[in-house]
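hey so u asked for the seq, here:
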Amino acid sequence: MTATAGRVPQSDLRDFLRSRRARIGPEEVGVAAHPGRRRVPGLRREEVAQLAGVSVDYYTRLEQGRTLHVSAEVLDAVARALRLDATERSHLFDLARPQRAPGPGRATDTAAGAPGPVETAGPQRVRAGLCRVLDALDDGTPAMIMGRRLDVLAANRLAEALYAGFGTVVPEVAVPGTVGSGTAVPEAVASGTAGSGAVVLGTPDQRRRNLARFLFLDPAARTLFADWESAARGAVAALRFYAGRHPYDPGMRPLVDELAAFDGDFRRWWAGHDVLEHTHGTKRFRHPAVGELALEYESLTFPDDPDQTLYLYTAEPGSPSDEALRTLASRAPRASRAAGTGRPGR
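ran it, structure tokens below
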């Protein structure tokens, strides 16, 4: 994400569409391959245009972000041609039609060099009633509320215990300048050996209360998740999806720049443009206190604040994971964690 605040990076749409057509060969969709050496993997622009029923010139302008007011019919046709799933289709619409009327938390910035809506949303707050809901689930159900950019806004006692090491403060390190996907990073930064006296991105508390930072910057995460790569790639894809939906969020670029500066896996996966919306699924943990757990998670988004989502973790009744979760609950500190986190997020 390399755009300045207040601008939609046209390269995001271009790179997303390129990445989607690169994974499909012409033989897979019944298109006769054009003669000549293929310089790029997957479908060519003219082949996507043929499948979508639009002119090559129009598709080229769409991919380059030079087409305003593109119709839903055309985007649906492109989505079908590229075999996008529901999340990818939604992401395509977000990238291709980013200009929205200012709403709650947005303003219109007409200053020279920064046209269009600019995110002005204040800190997120978790209602006291929701914190009490988390506390009510404390004895058997890990639960947390996540906000913008995978910020963890509130978590109950059992969720804190499940994410062992989540509260570890990541050492303050230097992040000189900014980087985008695929941008070279100074070796001292990439290796984490940068010296003192540099600007720190965020406070220690902000660093430890974000799931993406935990996954990529805290060594404890790599042993806590039985399949760390799957969890980490999912977080990157979720951030990509969020970035498309909130292109003017001023907090996204610093987060992406920081993670890209310190982790090569993040840089590579971010450049892949995969997207994911965490709605439900399975997470496998290798917990230092109770061993392996396989937990199903479900997500519930609040109608009055769609940027806050409640995540609930459950185990199959009577399973080893259920027994491990009960053991973890019996060992977790009894002090309410949720009540202490009903404060502004970032």
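The chain has 15 helices and seven strands. Residues 223 and 286 are 7 Å apart (CA to CA).
lmk if thats what u needed
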